[in-house]
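Blinded run. Sample ID left blank on purpose so nobody reads anything into the name before looking at the predicted structure. Input follows.
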Amino acid sequence: MKKLFTLVSFIALTVIATLSTVRAQGITTPRVPSPAAKVSQTVGISTVTVTYSRPSVKGRIIWGDLVPYGWNVQNFGNQKPAPWRAGANENTVIEFSHNAKVEGHNVPAGRYGLFFTVYDNDSSEVILSKDSRSWGSFFYEADHDQLRTSIHLRSHPMTELLTYDFVNLTKNSAELVLNWEMKQFPVRIEFAVDSIVFANATEELKGPIGFNWQGYSSAANYSLQNKSNPEQGLKWADRAVTMNKNFNTLITKAGLLQLQGKTTEFKKTQEEALALGTNAELNTYGYQLLNAGSMDEAIYIFKMNTEKHPEDPNTWDSLGEAYALKGDKENAIKSFQKSLSLDPPEAVKANSTKYLKKLGAM
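Blinded prediction complete.
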């Protein structure tokens, strides 16, 4: 009986302690006046995410007053000079899914506290701290910095609510900007996108994707389209061809051989691919060559397609476009007229007619 009483008493005390903790914490309510926010941007297959709180200007003097210039001792914490928390409440946190370069400096993947210093001459420093879980900059420790580097501020239209955004996106980079009041804090972020894609593809091909030819073909095609690491791309292309020899696998392999200057092997593989190509595949390949500026090669493919499928008006329409873009007016007109003579679908008819009018043949 005594053991039972002790057990019941223990459970009761545990419940009371738990309820006290819950009451002390309170319920989740809207954060006022600096709402929480999160913004994320994908660069290549990598992501940058910023989690922050958004104070408002509210008619206050921001720079040099609410946000003091330079480094300042906080009224709490370790009482050491600290930068601005670049937001409100907890640390502003920036997270990189892969290794990155920030303002030209290597930064490992991970989470960092994001800070800025502001000076009276539109210069600033951006700081990434390994302490990402602190509250604001009250406990800032300079020797925990992963990165500290100078940036130059820009003027910006009035922004009432502090806002992070991503601008000037390229294949490999983006610019993270903090906009508040009439200042903009720009931070350039870069990723080695091709290297990251190749490393990721290598791992993905060890899983279910590696059991089908499409996985290897897509990896090889990425190498070809981006003209990156053609040696590895060719290995993937060979694997795809071994698993399924078709137009797509062969033409990708041919392109990688051409990229490496292996002309004889390229021509042999290309001819093998073309022999297997369907009407639609040859037409698509012709336009790929056309978009790449390879006019003569595109015309060769389109002409081959008209020979294989002489009764298809679309093949003649495509050949006409290639001749027109090259500036061969005579052959372009002949091709478009041939297309119209074959009773084409409305879309093909409209395209051939449009070009003939442009060429002064209608």
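Unblinding after everyone has recorded impressions. The first helix runs from residue 2 to 25.
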